[in-house]
Amino acid sequence: MRRRAAKVDANQSEVVAKLRALGATVQSLAPLGRGCPDLLIGYRGTNWVVELKDGRLMPSARKLTPDEAAWADAWRGQVATAGSWEEIAALIGARKEAA
Predict the structure, then answer these.
(1) Are strands 39-43 and 25-28 parallel, antiparallel or unpaired?
(2) Cα 83 to Cα 5, 48, 53, distances in angstroms
(3) Concatenated DSSP letters for the chain?
(4) What does each C-alpha distance from 19 to 1, 9, 74 come to in angstroms?
(5) 40 burial class (0-12, 13-18, 19+ CB within 10 angstroms)?
(6) Which domains are assigned to the chain?
(7) Is the pTM of this model over 0.90?
(8) What whole-number percentage of the chain has pLDDT above 70?
(9) Do strands 46-52 and 39-43 pair parallel, antiparallel, or not at all (unpaired)?
(10) Rg (Cα) of the chain, in Å, rounded?
(11) Are 16 and 43 in contact (CB under 8 A)?
(12) What is the pLDDT of residues 38-79, one digit of tens each?
């Protein structure tokens, strides 16, 4: 069985650049596939696992895939879905620094 290339949302490079400018470390998990979220973010001693969706798309296009939903349901730790840089900044508590 061949694996398809991981699809990366259009806003991922912008979000990653802004996170790194804040001093966060960011690891793309997208190549893992199988529903694993897109980003592992480390900021101020805390880690976040984030499924990034393109908030500019219609809501139906931002829904979790069946694999993503299954992964999130099975995960025993934190996992979040975000559709924009602003949502991620709020999630990690960087709103003041990001403004």
Answers:
(1) antiparallel
(2) 21, 15, 5
(3) -PPPPPP--TTHHHHHHHHHHHT-EEEE-GGG-TT--SEEEEETTEEEEEEE--TTS-GGGGSPPHHHHHHHHH-SS--EEESSHHHHHHHHT-HHHH-
(4) 35, 16, 27
(5) middle
(6) 12-98 (3.40.1350.10)
(7) no
(8) 88
(9) antiparallel
(10) 13
(11) no
(12) 999 999 999 999 999 988 888 888 899 999 999 999 999 999
| Contacts of residue 41, Cβ cutoff 8 Å, sequence gap at least 6 | 19, 24, 25, 26, 47, 48, 49, 50, 88, 92
Whats the size of the chain, residue-wise?
99
Q: And the tokens for 27? A: 């690891």
Rounded Cα gap, residues 8 and 36, in angstroms: 12
